[in-house]
Amino acid sequence: MTAKKALKFDYVIIGNSAAGIGAVEGIRNVDAKGSIAIISDERYHTYSRPLISYYLGKKVTSDSNMYYRPKGFYKHHGVEALLGRKVVSIDKRIKELVLADGTKIAFKKLMVATGGAPFVPPIKDLEGEDVYTFTTWDEAKKVAKAAGPDTTAVVIGGGLIGLKAAEGLIEIGVKVTIVELADRIFSTILDVKGSKMFETHLKNLGSKVITGDTVTAIKRKAESGKREKGKGKEDRVTGVVLKSGKEIACDMVIVAIGVVPNTALAKTAGIKMERGIIVDGHLRTSEKDIYAAGDVVETFDVLRKVRRPQPIWPNAYTQGYAAGLNMAGFIFEYEGSFGMNSVEVCGLPTITVGMYDAAGKGFEEIVKSGPEKDSYKKIILKDDRIVGAVFVGDIDRAGIVTGLIKDRVKVSDFKKYLLTDEFGYAVFPKELRKERLYK
Ligand SMILES: Cc1cc2nc3c(=O)[nH]c(=O)nc-3n(C[C@H](O)[C@H](O)[C@H](O)COP(=O)(O)OP(=O)(O)OC[C@H]3O[C@@H](n4cnc5c(N)ncnc54)[C@H](O)[C@@H]3O)c2cc1C
Asked: Do 427 and 318 fall into the same domain?
């Protein structure tokens, strides 16, 4: 019997999300003809992961509104989409990868955009029914099926994913308790004041927020007859036990502590990594023809001056796009990124960019609390350049500030206006105004 021949493509992309789609668009901007395959173990047309909480909360009700690109995207770009297919190994020596069904795929250039994997801590009796992570559309569908107005849920983790899960649940009437190990929710993206505003907001909506504590065990009770036929006796979740000894009754648990770079595949292929895959300024890994982008990599944080994973959607897309340009032969230097979060949880819009607190000597803070108790703004400066901003409740003009951070514009001439009502392009010196408006 002859061995099955490998499929061959000029470009192969593993991951069909922000970074993978960015790569397709980067490649096609340079190379209109090269063959491209995109592979994902998720079975869906490319969708916006941040929308899964809106799906759960029934704010997005049609599949097409979940899609990140129109239905004809792959065809339009001449891309072979291999969806619902898992890559199990990469042989960098012969430039070939293998799918779970045994299919071999040869590549000239490979892009690893495998994203993040949910971090699941060791918790007693976590394995089993009624416990979910919240990082995929499929997982959101499972939660949506199991949850309703009579459900009570414990969300473990008060970061971006946990709060978005909580929002979706609140929207459909679920009673939610958020348990966060740190001393405040949103602790990695917001300062103390902003976090407290969020906590108060959630409590006003009827949710409970417990900080400085964590879940150590899940309580389960054997029950029969409630599940699908053939599944037999199931141990349903009845509550959680916290480190403090406190117990909370609930019907479901969402583990939403965060994501870690999904590096398993690249690691076994011998690609160099630390916390995430290490890439150079062209998004190239330690292997000449293998690139990587998105939540799976660590990149240079231009504001904090360290290399670290920066798992947010716009960074994943931009890195993927830059990698795509380079893969196709257009030399493009990606200088790094910075943390930026734009979220609206239960009607409280927030934008945080870069640093959220002054980091010692040489930093300066400008703070403004709005007349409404739900509005607060802060800007952090170093050497007359903005290195961070927090906007809670009132996100007006956050876009202009983000642009100034991104391009590291000196703001000394108009610093006094930054958080005033007059702030806008009009207060910029003429040359800068022209340049910003042009941008
Ligand atoms: C609930 C939630 C809300 C979020 N909200 C926001 C937000 O408001 N703003 C924001 O900026 N960011 C948000 N994020 C983060 C954002 O979604 C990620 O930064 C972004 O999705 C990263 O894109 P990526 O392409 O790197 O990887 P991912 O989106 O993680 O996609 C990687 C893909 O690769 C597939 N894959 C992995 N391994 C294999 C394999 N071996 N074979 C085949 N396929 C594989 C995965 O299944 C997945 O489909 C949110 C994330 C979640 C989970």
From this structure: no
